[in-house]
Design goal:
Layout: E1 4-9, H1 13-28, E2 32-34, E3 42-47, H2 52-68, E4 73-78, H3 79-83, H4 85-89, E5 94-98, E6 120-122, H5 129-133, E7 144-151, H6 162-166, E8 170-171, H7 174-186, E9 191-196, H8 210-218, E10 225-228, H9 238-245, E11 253-255, H10 263-269, H11 275-288, E12 293-300, H12 307-319, E13 324-329, H13 347-371, E14 376-384, E15 390-395, E16 400-404, E17 412-421, E18 424-429
Parallel strand pairs: 1-2, 1-3, 3-4, 4-5, 5-6, 7-9, 9-10, 11-12, 12-13, 16-18
Antiparallel strand pairs: 7-8, 14-15, 14-17, 15-16, 17-18
Length: 431
């Protein structure tokens, strides 16, 4: 009987991409993949460490699976494993701890693919993250395939631990990406999600950047639609926006970190732009792609953030034509300059500010969705929700849609957006 493995992913789409590759690799080694709440021989937890909450959640999950199966192998991988391996090793039952660039070596530490000889900690950053990944399957997702094109970050934002746990900026080779894209096409996927820690800094060499990659991808015959993940505003040129607008195989969906709408705060964060430039980027998107979905990350409670600076952020975001927000509170991370800054914000103030921004983001999301009523958009359907015969998927501009139909999973259909319920549309499939 095949051994069972279950996965849990915390954090960003890069982590989701990494987990998908790991899952496919386990499948190729003869394992059966089961849901995380089921009994399993191996539990693999792919972690995030951007906030204290992510660290705490990881520890809780480890304890839960140990109670579920005391004899299971527990492997902890990813950013938390990279930053705090010794802390994780004190949690009873953890067997393998592999950092961000070591996780694909997990089979080196499984004897007979089923057990290990003792606790293992590996968290070096010397490896090229794509050396092994290029040889592994690309994804287990049924409708969308994650394709990681870049890892690490060489920015020096004062609050961010990612350069420490992911290493410096490194890009996948052009040949490696294009070969994987063709594999994804041939496997029948209908969307490729280009993932990266810092997508805009993709550059395997100085003469080949994201614009060039997108041109080569759209030139591949019968390639499915392409979706970009988060991209920094300083990397989103008018030329790139224009190119995306002229190629309907690239989804009209952008996620552009803002972090703060106050220039003094942005300077303390050591971001590579100020509000004027950010606003210009959003204006350019709206000029070329009037109906694009545009998301933004916004941080509250950064050290020294005054009431006046928060109000600047609120008013700036309120005036932006973005369509949804990811709001999170600042969390001190060791080895970052912001952790030792004065003026740390008390938790209740951070919560109150977050609440206001979350409400603003929800209002913007509902308003954008309302503006799409009656429009015809392409939807990639993923699964049945919430009952058999009703399928759910996303439009190219990132609106969640439900339709009644038969065998719609992994199908792209033109849909008229008919009835809105909260942040979901119920649509009519066009014949």
């Amino acid at each position: 009987m095949a051994k069972k493995v279950a996965f849990y992913t915390l954090g960003c789409k890069v982590n989701s991409s990494d987990t998908d590759v790991l899952a496919s690799s386990f499948e190729s080694h003869g394992y059966d993949i089961v849901e995380f709440d089921e009994y399993s021989d191996i539990y693999l937890i792919n972690t995030c460490t951007v906030t204290h909450q992510a660290d705490s959640q990881c520890r809780q999950i480890i304890r839960q699976v140990r109670r579920r199966n005391p004899d299971a192998v527990i492997a902890v991988t990813g950013c938390y494993a990279q930053s705090e391996p010794e802390e994780i090793s004190t949690i009873p039952g953890v067997d393998i701890i592999l950092g961000t660039r070591e996780k694909y070596s997990i089979f080196d530490y499984l004897e007979g693919n089923s057990c290990i000889t003792g606790p293992v900690i590996r968290n070096g950053l010397e490896l090229d993250p794509f050396t092994k990944e290029d040889k592994l399957p690309f994804s287990t997702a049924r409708t969308r395939a994650f394709l990681k094109v870049q890892d690490g970050c060489s920015y020096k934002c004062s609050y961010c631990i990612i350069p420490s746990v992911r290493g410096p900026n490194i890009s996948r080779s052009k040949i490696g990406i294009l070969n994987k894209a063709r594999e994804i096409r041939d496997a029948g996927y209908n969307e490729i999600v280009l993932t990266a820690v810092n997508l805009g800094e993709f550059a395997p060499d100085k003469n080949y950047r994201l614009n060039d990659l997108l041109k080569d991808l759209v030139a591949i015959e019968d390639l499915p639609r392409i979706r970009l993940t988060s991209i920094e505003p300083n990397c989103l040129s008018e030329e790139l926006i224009c190119f995306i607008s002229e190629n309907n195989r690239i989804c009209g969906h952008f996620h552009i970190p803002l972090q703060s709408g106050s220039d003094p705060v942005l300077k303390r964060m050591r971001r590579k732009y100020l509000t004027e430039h950010y606003s210009e980027v959003i204006t350019n998107i709206r000029r070329y792609l009037p109906e694009a979905g545009i998301g933004a990350d916004v941080m509250t409670g950064f050290p020294g953030e005054t009431d006046e600076e928060f109000e600047e952020t609120f008013k700036f975001v309120e005036g932006l034509p973005v369509t949804y927000l990811h709001v999170f509170r600042y969390s001190p991370r060791k080895e970052t300059d912001a952790a030792s800054m004065g003026g740390q914000i008390d938790p209740q103030t951070g919560k109150d500010r977050s609440k206001r921004l979350i409400e603003l983001g929800l209002s913007k999301k509902k308003g954008f969705i309302s503006s799409q009523k009656g429009k015809i958009r392409e939807v990639l359907f993923e699964s049945t929700q919430p009952e058999p015969g009703i399928y759910e998927g996303f439009t190219d501009n990132y609106i969640r849609v439900r339709c009644r139909g038969d065998n719609l999973s992994n199908k792209r259909r033109n849909v008229r957006l008919a009835d809105q319920e909260g942040t979901i549309f119920f649509g009519e499939i066009l014949k």
